[in-house]
Amino acid sequence: MxxxxxxxxxxxxxxxxxxxASVGDPAAVPDSGQGGGRRGSLGPVGLVLAGGLxxxxxxxxxxxxMPRAGALGVVTLRLAVxxxxxxxxxxxxxxxxxxxxWGTVVVFGAAMAGMNGLFYQAVDRIPLGPAVTLEVIGPxxxxxxxxxxxxxxxxxxxxxxxxFLLGGGGFDGLDxxxxxxxxxxxxxxxxxxxxxxxxxxRFPQADGLALAMGVGALLFLPLGIVESGAELIDPVTxxxxxxxxxxxxxxxxxxxxxxxxxxxxxxxxxxxxxxPAIAAGAGFLVLDQALSAAQSAAIALVVAASIGxxxxxxxxxxxQAPTVS
Length: 325
Known about the structure:
Elements lengths: L12 H10 L15 H53 L8 H25 L4 H8 L1 H11 L4 H15 L9 H27 L4 H22 L6 H26 L4 H8 L2 H13 L5 H28 L5
C-alpha cells in the first residue's frame, strides 16, 4: 500500500490495500465513512504516523543487526518471526482453496520475500532515507501508469528529479549497487501491492496474508542459513530479530488496522507517502546517517510526487462515482 509489514521501509499488508485502491482498484479497500470530521480523524492519523515510525525504526534496528547476522539473515529472522505470529493468530484454513487461490498466495509470498531481501541489500549499502525514497518509486510508477492522466506526468517528473538529486546526477554520491537494489525492491513493492489486493479478494480476513508470510519465510530460509548459519539461532541475534519483526510488522500492522476502521483509504495512502521522510529521520537518529541538502530536497520531491499522484487518483474516482439522488 493484511498483516505484519512485509517490510522495511515498506508497508504492511494493511498498507497495500489502500495503495491498491489508489492505483485503480477501488474494491481493494472500502472507504471508511467515519473518518470525515477533522477531530474524528486526528486519532487515526496519529495511529498511522506511529505505525510509520515503528516500521522505519524497526528498519534502522535491522541495519544495526546486519554486522552480526548479515542482510539475508536479518530478512530470514524478520519473515520467520512475523510468519509464526501471523499463522498462530490467524490460524488460516488450508483446505477448500482452488489452485488459482494457492497460485496467488505463492506469488504474493514470493513478491514479499523479494521486496524484503532486495530492500535489506540496499540499506546494507546506502542510507535508509535514500533507500526508502528510491523504493517508493515502484508504487508511485504503478499509480502513474494506472491513472493514465496527463497531470501524472508532473508527478513522474518530480519523482525523477528527486532520483536525479539523490544520485548526484549519476549516483556518484550513492553506491550504484545499493541504489539498484532499492529500485528493484520498489518494483517488487508494486507487485506486492497488486497481489496483496488479489489475495485479499480470495481469502477471508488476513488468512491469505498469513499463508503468504509463511511462503515468503520458507523461500528465504535457505538463503539465510547459507549466509548466517548457526548465527540465526544465537539467543542475542534471535532476540534482536524478534524486535525487528515486532517493530516492523506486528506493531505497525495492529496500529494500521485500528486506523483503517476510522480513516478513509485515500487519506491513509497519502500519509504513507511520508515514509521516505520518516525513514530519513530514523536513519539520522538511530544510525547517524546525515543527509546533504540535495538529498533532503530529493526526498521532499519524491514525497510531494507520491502525495500528488494519490490525490489525483482519488479526485478522478470521485468524479467518476455515480451520484445518488
